[in-house]
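job 3f2a | input accepted
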Amino acid sequence: MHDAGDFRARLGSRPELWTSLALVVLAGVIVISSAIAERSDHKGEVMSAAQALTLVSVAIVGTWGRTILAFYYTKENYEAANRGTLDLVKSLAERLSATASLDKMMP
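job 3f2a | predicted structure (107 res):
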């Protein structure tokens, strides 16, 4: 059985390839249907359907690819933010412990 890190690595390494491939396939289908529509009586209907399919598919496939990338990089971003916050808290704690409150208090 695969662990979650391996799954993330495999999932994050290929989204652009799959997104591009899906868009190429959809573009091929649209071009072929447009070529077939040239010979039919319903040319306007097919062209408007092809345009709508293009707009919707680009939006959906693009969003899918970005969602996969966001999922892939979420763990790394969280760990980096967590390390930064811990470093900030440690440095603040060190500065506060280095200064005695009696030295800073007003008499």
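job 3f2a | The mean pLDDT is 77.
job 3f2a | closed
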